[in-house]
Structures
1.
Amino acid sequence: MADRRSAPDRTVRAIQWAMAGVAVVFIGGIITWITHLIRTAWRLGDVPSASIGISIVAIPVFLTLLGVILYVIVGILGDRGEQ
């Protein structure tokens, strides 16, 4: 069966998937960076309370943000596929 979508539609869909990928990489990088900071503070014998406190707040916030971004993008792509 031939793909009936036009070239601009495929381009927009590819851009939306790229935006989702960039969001995953960006937020994954932030979480990795925060984890690295905690490990470094632990290794250097620094007081880990501030880094752990920040990570307890920051990591769930960024995971929630990632969930919202992916929910919106998948919702947009799902609605466009039904048309």
2.
Amino acid sequence: MGVTALVAATGRGRVSAATPSSYPDWIPASTKPPKRGGVLNRASVWDPPVIDPRHTQSIGLFQFAGLTSSRLIRYAFPEEANSTNDVTLKGDLAESWQSNADHRVWTFKLRQGVKWQNLPPLNGRELVAADVKYCYEQYAKEGVQAFTFQEIEGMETPDKHTLRVHLKTPNTLFPQNVAESVTVIFPREVLEEDGDLKKRLIGTGPYILKEHTRKVRVVLQRNPDYYDKGRPYIDEYVILSTPDFATRKAAFRTGQSDILQVASLSEVEVVRKTNPSAVVQEYKNVLAPFGLALAQDKPPFNDVRVRRAISMAIDRQKQVDTVYEGHGIPGWGVPYFYYQDTAPTLKDLGQWWQYRPEVAKKLLAEAGHAKGFETTLFYYEYFPEMTSQVQIVQQDLKKNLNIDVKITKLDYTTYYGRYVDSKWDGMSWGFQSGHAVGLDERTYMYMHSKSTKNFFRVNDPVIDELTIKLRRTPDRAEQRAITKKIVDRELDQVLRMWMPYDAGFFLYQPHLRNMAALALRRTDGYGSPATTRTWLEK
């Protein structure tokens, strides 16, 4: 199917300017007393590749792992936040935390009386500091979180409710790292009994994992022993694996799903024809999670002229206008609120991000590829618009640079494993994991050459130096200045080739309360812990 036909199939057409939305991006918390009970249902695009939190950062797992399990610290829930961009830290298992003068030693005071879920082999015993110490030690040994926790030199537990963490080097941003949604605390007993965490997910969170049938559904049941007494409000949360968008949309329209994400204003209006009372939230993007990932550790993509040429041969504005109906952003990788007050425009991204095919052609010729070359690209269709974007890029590169791109569309699990394990050459429609809220995760963890989360294979000494300097800088104003330098360097060297994006809009059934999404924390995804405060007005 060609691009034109596919765009038509998704109900989109080219428009010349951004389509204004009359829907709010901020839905305040309900002022009514919460109601207990009921079942929350959601048709989900994702399915967890595994349920062992050591081995995946997939949203398929963390759309519910943040509900079965707790972290030391968390980010503000919607009812606690003052805007969608509020990234204030709150205590979860930890009630307080502080560092020593050089930010190498962090001390966490744990909440007392927190119990593991009343399932064997835990049987509701109290969580203590030694549990957190053990869990962090296991994260450091293996898996996708290893790089984060290997910066820990050692840990002490002076008493059963105090954890003292000694880092190898200063890090003013360490609390942010243990607040990320993927740093959930799991129990020693299950890992020791089973040898892994593939079969059971037991934690101290507001919900107990009652059922997990791969590619079918996940069922969560209210944990009566949750430390935050009276919460959660909803008795059961059912997540139905539904990769097809049309099926998810039908499920929402018929009341079988309580939440639906759509990518455009026209799709919102289509759904509202049958569901006029649906509550709509416009999602304001603060970054682009997807981009054209190049095997830049190998020729020809290790040549900055090739990367710049490819970037300039792609018409991003066309994607914004046709695929996202003018509502999307052109694409950048670090949340803008960490270095400036307003979202960048396409012009702000610099010369290598403008659509200039003739300049691109000259650059590629200078790099020794005047006749173009052949390469491959694989992707997973996270949403229908992504296929349109992939095909537009394929056509732009053929037309402007004579680069032949052979496209392969994969299922989610195959795509995720191949991409994250870096088992690919050529191109991928890559992503930066959407879980990250913190500045250290979005810079040092995702871009330092030694990081195992550096999926785009960035290997730049200037980035390495700046990201280390950033995490050693406590002053917020200085952090913003350094972050801007990191972003400018990334754009100049085209280290990660971001593509236009729009998370679009969320539709909620009218009986949902306190379900709104925040920046980088969609309640249907990595922001799932906020569901603890959701309730049903029916």
3.
Amino acid sequence: MAANPTYPTREAVDFVVIGSGAAGGVMARELSVAGFNVVVLEQGPYRKAQDFTHDEIGVVMQGELSLNPNDHPQTFRARPELKAEVPPQGSGLPPAWYAAGVGGSSVHFTGNYWRFRPVDFKERSLLGEIEGTSFADWPLTYEELEPYYTRVDWEIGVSGAPGPFDAPRSRPYPVPPLPIKSSGAILERGAKALGLHPQVAPMAILSKPHNGRPACIHCGFCLGFGCEMNAKSSTLAAMIPQAEATGRCEIRTGCTVMRLEHDDRGRIRDVVYLDENGVEQAQRTRAAVLSANGAESARLLLLSQSAKHPDGMANGSGMVGKNLMFNAHSATHAWFEEPLNEFKSVQCTRIVMDFYETDTKRGFYGGGGIDARPLVNSWPILFAMGGIAPGLPTWGAEYKRLMERYFTRNMSVLGNCTSLAMERNSISLDPEVKDVFGRPAVRVTYEDHPDDLATARFMQDQAVAILEAAGAERLWRDEVTPSTGGPHLLGTCRMGNDPNSSVVDRYHRAHEVPNLFVVDGSNFVTSGRGQPTMTIQALAFRAAEHMTRAARAGEV
């Protein structure tokens, strides 16, 4: 392996990539492999596979893979006219939930890797305007993105098999599906009894060795945890090592970017950050790639105000931070007579996509996919705290009996759904609350469109029908309520051809800043059906190819 470089901050590198997650990791690898000098600025630490544990308290309850909420508070409000508040301690995850560290949230994600379908890119043309929303077509098609989905399959590493409703693909999956687990078999049984079409769940977790990485050992700690085997296809495992192997990519951890600065021509010149010792530094660069996620990318642009950009960098349209989408979800839980042993293996092995597309007969916009999984009830502490069915004892001898019997007999069925883009839903700078570095806190303003909630309830009805058909002993629903946060941070630097209604062009270049690119979930125009990371990475591969071509032509 080539030695890791250390670039002087006052000499311009070719690219500074801000963030090393699902998109940033791809950008780092692609640009360095193409021969460019790259500095990656990552605010979290550089953990390796051997650093990851199965500690429920540390990882899940204390959030050790995320930023400390006391140092990095966020605020939430449902509507713009309300005052945003910091959620009370112990109330759950932050409004904009993401992991901090090399690999970003690809380290702790579940690994559901669904492609979009052709319809996702042109729904506005097919369905028409939806009042009160920013519903629009993407400036590209599925056919344009398909080669890059295939690169994700093969270069990131996706296990799977085609389903009956899948979009066309140019190559098969690189490795076969992961073994079906009990929740998948039950989903299949119930869905087939109803005449539906269950299919293999594509997962960014290796079923067989691939690209020098090992197969999954089915430890059962995927959702929320890092993978100690490197079988989960995080960018930490799949992309960053290849970037560093070029000898042209420097990963700087513990670095919090404070602002972007431009020169007299309006071009990004310096990326200003606090290093791991809290000392302000400025990395000179020929171009910047912002891949910090849909909350932090928008926040950084808003923080980068200047006389030329009084409302924030690249925000002449006023669209930076607007059109936030979370993806609506529903959850239904069930107990079965026979042991399921869902504490083993990956979260999902089967899905149902019969309700993917909008059906106007339902009376509302939206669709989604259904998956079966243990969710958080595969871990003993979380099951003990919330896995017992409503109305049953949660103390005493009967509680102990229920825990003993049903820890191995529980599963959940999730609906993963659309969210409509609306300008009123946003990431903005909180005027009062600041983080440990004195930066205005991320302020999340979000209220689901009524169609989003209707879709989630519709999907939950289908989940109930499937579980009943499969012979559930007992089942119950989590009430579908308005969202107060989520891990899918989409839409806040929208892609588009019109500079008046979008932030970046179809190749992720900021309309107003020629050497600034934004590449992450913030570019989404519509939300897809609840699993966005596959598309984030396909877009990143495509963006990197364009940037490489443009840079070699002297057009960056």
